[in-house]
Amino acid sequence: MKVVQVSKPGGNFEIVDRPTPQPGRGQVRIKVEACGICHSDLLVKEGYWPGIQYPRVPGHEIAGRIDAVGADVTLWKPGQRVGVGWHGGHCFHCDPCRRGDFIQCKFEKITAINFDGGYGEYTIVPEEAVAAIPEGLPADEAAPLLCAGITTFNVLRHSGATAGQLVAVQGIGGLGHLGIQYARQMGFRTVAIGRGADKKALAKKLGAHEYVDTNEGPPAEALQKLGGANVILATAPDSKSISALVDGLGPSGKLLVIGADQNPLTITPLQLIGPRRSILGWPSGTAKDSEDTMQFSALTGVRPMIERFPLEKAAEAYERMISGKARFRVVITMN
Fold first, then answer.
1. Domain extents in the chain
2. Is the pLDDT of residue 322 over 90?
3. Beta 278-281 vs 210-213: how paired, if at all?
4. What's the pLDDT band for 31 if we cut at 50, 70, 90?
């Protein structure tokens, strides 16, 4: 099989031939049809995640078909359409697992970090990391839903917001363009927050009822004029911009942060105490959450906007993503 690997932290992408691996006990082999390129692939490419063993094949937005199954695998059969996201497995035995909170497993496996990912023609994954892809959802459109999709869908459905309430989505990028669609389809009064008047038409096309242009003034003031947000979903990784949103929350409003920035948020306790505001982070989710995400997307027509590249151009595809020029998710396709 052909794979695209990184041989050392900070190394170049290399196209190499490897023997096609055989699944072990409790594992399945997936014939990859598409693999999304996520900004988190930077962790593998540059070696920022501690303990990665090289060479390593990146890619944690994998869509394809079961090709072979190992011993004791009963849920999955060859030929099934499946996907794998960030969450690559769990131990079933630690305290969080025993409570059913698998995403918080103390020994969680992460796709493309603990084992090879989807920048290749085949990959081996634990059976508990596998999600069924519904009919009518093509592999290249399913792939980004297994990271960007599940993260935005899962946090919104657990936000506590109810139909008709005001939900604002900060950022109209790889995460935000999906968040706007999900918010609209969940019945929320959806507000998109972006920079520049040129993004208004796209925001409205994606389903936003209102558009807030941060070039025209503080977004918090604009949100308060709309009545205050019950939920603000922060998707753009800019701590300064995220911090500026808190005062746009209404009473008991929640700021949900999924855009990762290493800089601290600058928020005072007084901004939180009186109005009972809260700030929460959210990871992606399990394979079952991925199934829910894809089923909801297939049902409602939520789709990622993607740019496709063949496996041989994985390096070019990665650079397209890392430059921020992609609109909005980059996907490697195998055929």
1. 2-147+284-333, 159-281
2. yes
3. unpaired
4. very high
